[in-house]
Queue: 2 jobs
Job 1
Amino acid sequence: MTSETSLVDTAIADIAQFADPYTEVKTKQISGGFRLEMLRGSRDLNVEIRESGRVSELLGKKRTFPSVESFLASERLADLSKFAATQLRALKAKTSLNAPIPTHIRIHGKAVSSTVIADGLVGSSPKLQLLLFNGPAGIGKTFQIESLVSHQAARHAEGIPVPPVLHVNSLGRRLSNLRDVLAATTQDMDTSFSARQVPLLVRRGLLVVAVDGFDELVDADGYEDSWLALRQFLGDVGDTGSVILAARDTFVDEQELLERIQLSRKQVKLVVGDILPPTTNQAREWLAKSPNWKPAELDSDLTADILREGGYGLRPFFLRELWAAKGWTDVIDSGPRTYLVNRLLVREAKIIAKSLGSVKAESIESPLLSLLQEVAMEMATRELDTVEIEHLSFLTQLFFEDTVDESAIRKLMHKSGSLALLELTGDKATRRFPHSEIRHYFFGSALLRELSAGRVPALLRRHMLNAEQAEVFAEVFANSPKEAIAAMSVCSSILGAEVASDSLAPNLAALLFVGLSLGYVDRLDFADLIEATFAGQSPKGVLTKCNISKLDARGADISNLVFDDVSVDTIVVDDATIVGDSMPNISAVELHGESVETRRSPADIQQWLAAQSAAGPSEFESPSVALLQRVARRAVRHFYLRAGREDEGSTLLDDPLWPGILKVLQRHDRVDIHRARPMHGRPSPLIRVKNPIYLLDVTNRETAQILSELVATDRGVRKAPANRPIV
């Protein structure tokens, strides 16, 4: 068989995939090629395919196409022009009135825009090209993909031969349902091609598939059916084409991804892009365009702390919600997600109360919270990120029937699809949360409600929790210590007796791991964890006979943990991670900084551990220094700390050493005390530690001076403070 014959055979097979289901495709060899007859859209389609690649229609307009690709892209088959036009309309409907937030993608150490990446997607590539977009939740992975979609669709509409980007969202499903997700995406966009035809369009360089939320689609423990689905899809695509995968930055590294999909670098060109947030100055300049922010607010110390480099406040998801905020008047002793959720809840409750006219906003907040918790729980149960308006109306009646009268309930049911906390989707009959961070927050609070009451949701046996959810759950659990402690007790008792092989045991272990990081649990035994996180925490306790696939310890002090026969496949760390003399058996260290570096050799791992170890003598070793560093790590994650609560922050402030530390911080102007009345309970001051991240850097001159004073205080010797500028 000659190469020309092989190309014609491939062309026939690709074109035949567009035949109407259960209809016959006839082929006949002719001089210099083949003739193909089939039904497409209930109409006869007869073409001649020449060995040169030229395709000629024999019926209708009798057009001639210079290549098989141009015929596949035409309105008779995939109709990619129609698809691009639909994408432009869909994106226009979603366009925000706010100015775009400046973000870039770092590839090979250079920051580039999505349009630069688009230039590498033109035409068929010599081998399969995989682009992996990395970044934490809310960093703008979806925005970058939508920018690519918009750019390619606009160029295609102008007649430029570029492949449109098919934006595939997880919709809350696992990758084992990839065909269903592709089918849902093509159906929503009313494409002329189906999920079955997507791989050949990618292989031909006519379409790029971008899988958004790749880490949500895939079970991170490598369940064979999940990774098998991706391997099969890439196998169907073949040796050429481009596929984009977007996932959180700790999900999978380059080597592991290639091992999972069973491809080598000779078979695939793998490009990794790190999504970069805006800088502090860019974020300030962007917020300055909002009519809700005054220059004095933007220039305040609190703004500098919240919008610090590397902080959560610079994530575009958070910044977009700040656009409508009027400064920091609502900031309390909470984390950033809690701040956003509280703002959204209060705002929505006021809107509902005003529309009803016969009820106070405060009485609306509780049933509204329960409603959104139930919506998030059902989304997780059904593996979807949307809810039908009809079902939302039913839930509205269920949760508000004891709060408002029948007339008000009818009004609420009628307007249930207009809740500001649930936004429009491509389907007019469904709604979704503004972001996965918000969905995870309500899901976590729903789990806490159920578990603290002794009820174990059935979805924990089917739905595998991931590290992104665990990070959000940690903030939820930190806000409700009593409920969290009760929930941890339930998880512990069930885990000890659990023998089933479903997802319940690893999920309970993951929740207990969150409890351990917050001080609600002091030990965890015989646990197998897929993903776990201590990020930004200072846990104390014991881990015994545990196996952890991936442990996120970025910004964490784990020197007070005891690891007894614990194995960790990969520990994710950064320069702020502190380890102790007790450590697990580690197979790989994934070091995050300006770039991501994975160390696998035992010698390299031991070298890093030695450099980050808190074990052994130190000039700053003292109880007060240890307490200050724990306070600083808490302050990095929370806007304020408040005494008088049963949470980690209050425990730290109730320590007998804290008054002495507070005096030292006040002398250096590194603390701000705000007298404010809490939402519930007795008044207590809000304490904000200024520039807390620098208190973890012992090489900083002022930090070194503060630590020296604390050491001297612990030793009973008062040193005269030096006046140094705040860094």
Job 2
Amino acid sequence: MLRVYKNLLLLNIIFLIFCSISYSEIVKKIEVIGNERVSGETIKVFSTISEGQNVEKKQINLILKSLYETNFFEDIQLKLNNNILTIQVTELPIIQNIFFEGIKSSKMIESIKSQNLIKEKSSFNKKIIKYEKEKIQNALKDLGYYSSTVDIYIEKLENNIVNLTFDIDLGNKTKIKKITFIGNKIFKDNKLKSIIASEEYKFWKIISGKKYLNKNLVSLDSRLLKNFYLNNGYYNVEINYSFAKLINKDEFELIFNINANNKILFGDINLKLPTDFNKENFNILNKIFDDLSGKPYSINSINKILEAIDKITLIDEYKFINATVTEKLEKNFLNLEFKIEETEKKYVKKINIFGNSITNENVIRNQLEFSEGDPITDILVSKSVNNLKSIGIFKNVNHEIVDHNDKNLKTINLNVSEKATGEIFASAGVGTDGTSVGFGIKERNFLGDGINLNTSISLSTSSVKGNFTVVNPNYKNSDKSLRFSLEATELDNYQLFGYKTNKTGISLGTNYEFLDDLYLGLGTTNFYEKIETNSTASARQQSQEGNYWDSFINLDFDYDKRNQKFQTTDGFRSYYSIDLPIISESNTLQNYYQLTHYFDLFENNISSLGLYLEAANSLTNDDIKLSERINIPSSKLRGFESGRIGPKDGDDFIGGNYAYSINFSSTLPYVLEDSQNVDVLFFVDAANLWGVDYDSSLNDNGSIRSSTGIALDWFSPIGPMNFSLAYPLTKENGDRTESFRFNLGTSF
């Protein structure tokens, strides 16, 4: 019986070998027929088969696949008989011209063309037309045209040539009628609306393009929302989906579904090092870990840790290290372990940059943490990509690391997608202090050099201001910004202070990070000023009429430890500025200091405590100019009319040489809790203004003015509105109080 089984097995093996031999054949000749445009030799190359090669029947399908992938042929027939492989092809037509009808904007047409699969002088494939139509419709949706239609017409010409016409009906741009946030979102709608870029359509918004539904803008909104929650301790936040619901024709409601989950605090944060590493070189990380323990989770704090690791890599012995993090969530605490380990030694052989049709290559290279020949690690690559994303001129940044035969050498391919960087803006406001309007133009990538241009003009009840500013954010790859500004201002203070001033001049300066979170600014301002007084001014004030030329050296020290610069909820900022006179008739030394600390007193509360100090004195004991005298900003002393406290000369309030204020504010999240567009806060202000250098008899006695009250921020259909109801606690005779104040602002 066993012998029978052996015989059967042997017969099966012989049968399989016979079948294998019988289904293969040596190709002695390849014939190509039906081709007119593509040469026979080219088709032979595409087939991946050469004469003398042994071909099995199953390889025929692979040959067909290779030829169809060239997108040159409409139909392909293969025959293998008598050692002759016959390839019969029917070529696809060639597209002579592509026309776009229904669109007048050449910029829009170029935007659509850049995403097309089909190009002029390429093959016309009916199977791709379906996808081409979808891509055009998606491109139009990105531009806000959600109701557009696309029809395709094919004109057949002689010699297997066609013309292609896309007939596009744009329809009306799709407007965002309403923006809604649903789910466990913690924060009110007015707060979240101030975070996102999209905005609700209003008939007066004739300039802003953010009022139209735009898929890319909505994606940006989702990222902005997620980062906001992550920076406020909501580690497990879910922006589940965002979608648009049709309300009326061409009007949608944009809805964001948010699940903030529980607030998470940093727990134990540890560092794991190789045994041969010197721990003292990593002390800076342990200090950061100690500072963060017990504080709310923040993505910005994680970035601070990564930046500290990046600085350690500058030490020669640590050039080739990588950091990984292990996260472990225990109840409401996130424990982290950062593991530092050595990686293989890799160097940059070449950097290729693609997609920058406008931006000059040096602008991109200036943001990279490496160049050809430098060591490369994953940390440096990630930081370089983040640097490029942060400058605000690219829609997308992708990278690829390509290996070489020498495993230590790498080519870095960077692919950027540019976006529109120009903006026209207009604004208007009305409030207790009067009305104002503004207009301006911004450009963030002038001439492709990454240079910021900003020109603006604003008019209010008492002033006209014009400004033209040029900023190079990374001058000659020095990590220092360079700023030039041309300014002109007319300030009419006849009614308040008895004088009017016109200033025109230029300023030049630089700014850079001197130490961690400490920014140093150095500059110079040079102004020509004309001061005029009216009949109500005193004789001493009238004596200051005339023309002045002043040049100052400016020094700024900005120590910023806020968790985020916008919608700050934790941390502090300490800012000091001094203006040193170089050429000046009065030789006025001006000092300004502002300290603001942010914290919470209870859940969902945001409180702040601020200190403001300012002084202006002549180094040569002269009288400082009328325009250099100090007045308390209205935001720092509510309950009093702006500019209507302190020393007086006759009927005119003349300001002082010294000023200070202490301000406390705290949100009341459980007052009007269900009103999604209203925030209420409690405040206490205390301030003082004193000193009259030109006549000590006019000096105020230095009493403290103080007030308390309630403020209400309302994100109204017209625009953000602010109301304050204040009660003066202490005041002086002659001070003008103001119980109610409001401001309304909007953009166009």
